[in-house]
Amino acid sequence: MRMFRIRAASEIEPSHCFLVFYTVALLADVDDIILRASGLIIAALCLWVVLCLNRISFLVLLLATTAQFVIFELPDTENHTNLLIFTNISMILCILYSYTRADRGNMDVFAAAALPIARLSIIAALFSAGLHKFNYDFINPAVSCIRQFGGDIFQVFTSDFSGFGPAPLTVLLGMLLVVAVLLWLQRPHLAMPPVDWPGLLPPLAIILLGMVGLAFLSGGLGTSAYDYLIFVIAVAVLSWQLVEAPLLLLPKFQWFALCFSLLVHLQLAVLRIVDFQAIAIALIIAFVPATVWDAWKRQALARIGPFQVHRLRLFFAMNLAGTAIMFAQGLDLIDWPRPLTAWGLLFIGGLLVMLWPVISDLFSPARGWRWEGVPVLQGQVPTWLYVMPVLVLMFGLTSHMGLRTAGNLSMYSNLRTELGQNNHIILGASPLKWAGYQEDVVHIIDIGDTATISGVLDRWGPLEGNYLPVVEFHKLMWRWRERGETVPMTVEYAGVTTTSDNLPLDPAWRVDNWDWEMRVMDFRVIESGDGPNHCRW
């Protein structure tokens, strides 16, 4: 059958690149379920897509992963998974739309509909993430998530990830050395690409102005050089997400934002966050102009000894190797300190292999293309399909609406919007809030020493002494009862204090069924007190 015909390397076109990058993003999401049948099925479907490169295989993969997310993982899904749900639905609609066209046999019809939606979706996601971070605690060096990230980056980059000795920083420097040597061997007379200063100066000026303005708003930057560094990085992150993301709408400014985005997301891939970075880079790839893909196509085949392998498939194979590492770790066949870091390094290496034709051509004196950017709406998209990126943006605003605080691109943001407290710089008066779920909370006064609760349920921070929205508390009660946990607790809700030897079985708190709020909402633990909101995932 045609849908199972393996596409020859000579038949692979630039329009297939987005397909493979997006498939890798879906593959990266199976790290938590790779030992389950569903994880293995999704990995097999990803392999089918990359071998056959047709819309039917991609549609089956999209339907399978969306079903996995919605049926088995909601509502406590991670940020990237929620983004994938929106983009998966968008891609499904694009495929179905492409089959309604007169030229439905052409893969380019799907790409023309999918790429504009992908561009708008990553802009909406980045802007939403930046809007969450635009708060006083994120720019406070003492509690900013940047401080936590700084420690994580240093630890992960300088420690053994595989048990064999080398640190990720050593591997990354080795990759850069290989790239430099290959560039010199291939291009003895290198030429630096021209810098588009008109496209660079406005973002840099905005970053500088933002730094001055936020320094004034913060009221104090600390006393050490490290505090100043944290503040500068925090402003750079805010500028990237709040300023450069909207500038992606303008082709002239795209190259700077894309380079910054790639560097940030590749760095985070080493920090065990391969899944989010994979979908972010898949959507970012939608901004690469056709002239660049044409240059890439001329060197799309990579030679490995006597064999030639298409770079797209080699990129996928290196990420499939990352999946194999996670599978082996899950079966206790290997015992690596940081298997996801190993996958992150494979992801970066695969990306370098994939983009090598562009990298080498970029420094060539005979380079025949110039970065002109891509009009964001370039393509053929039915008007009704633009509702999907709008929904991504609105989903990112749900913290400010009072509907969620977790899983809505608010990761590592220090944002607080609950219990009448709001640390946002612009939306501090909560003008968008219309739902009361963030104020309808349970105060968890005490958890007995004999509690048998699993630590995985305590995922947003310590429960004892803090608050939890009642919707989230009901989910805990249901899970603990289903698992047969014994949880002696003292809680206060609506002015009534309850003490029980096993609260999940207490008639006042027993939960037998999930209501619709429990199925779609997700909230973090709310820290008690009026101090700064500390960093949490």
UniProtKB/TrEMBL annotation:
Chain ranges passing through the membrane: 12-28, 34-51, 81-99, 111-131, 167-185, 197-219, 225-243, 279-296, 316-334, 340-363, 384-403
Keyword list, A-Z: Membrane, Transmembrane, Transmembrane helix
Cleaved signal peptide residues: none
Protein name as catalogued: Uncharacterized protein
Species for this entry: Roseobacter insulae
Lineage: Bacteria, Pseudomonadati, Pseudomonadota, Alphaproteobacteria, Rhodobacterales
